[in-house]
């Protein structure tokens, strides 16, 4: 066995990674030895105890899977800026393929990772600068793909938030209006849905058949809801 003095900090980072967090979350800006003797909690009782009373450790390593050469993909937090930029088109392509296969949740996760890479790079640029705008224009189609997945997962309020954020910057984005209109219709925001669909037609009249289908579906749902409400209220008032 090897005496591992810094293992508590390493273990905390690994646990953060497993939980999808920043591996350095909670660490102070000082050397590792200072952190060990600073008497603060790592957030895990077993690691706190090991930090106070270091002891020899034996590691059992279990192989979970074997990946083919070239198939390993780093998590976004572990990539350099250049690696993030190179990874985005590949992750986007993987998301598209998963979506075509009907794996909507998995596709959404891919789009999310690609967006996270670009957002991380964008944070380093001055808002409104040419580089910031270029990154934002790469984020927008990924965010619309993500919203399409969320529509199918019936997570409508997330779609409303993201599409509204896009339209605050790009007032002529037809896809954002269309997806937001569908989300509004799904949560019974009838006036807002009709306004968004009208905007779609104003920007792209060729989409009239698609918009008409959505409006007919909304009207049918409204008639069905009205009929159900009449039956429900009739039952209440007849008691």
TrEMBL record:
Its main location: cytoplasm. GO terms for molecular function: peptidyl-prolyl cis-trans isomerase activity. Transmembrane segments: none annotated. Gene3D superfamilies: 3.10.50.40, Tetratricopeptide repeat domain (1.25.40.10). InterPro entries: AIP/AIPL1/TTC9, PPIase_AIP, PPIase_dom_sf, TPR-like_helical_dom_sf, TPR_rpt. The keyword Zinc does not apply. Coiled coil: none annotated. Interacts with RET in the pituitary gland; this interaction prevents the formation of the AIP-survivin complex. This is AH receptor-interacting protein. It comes from Alca torda. The gene is Aip.
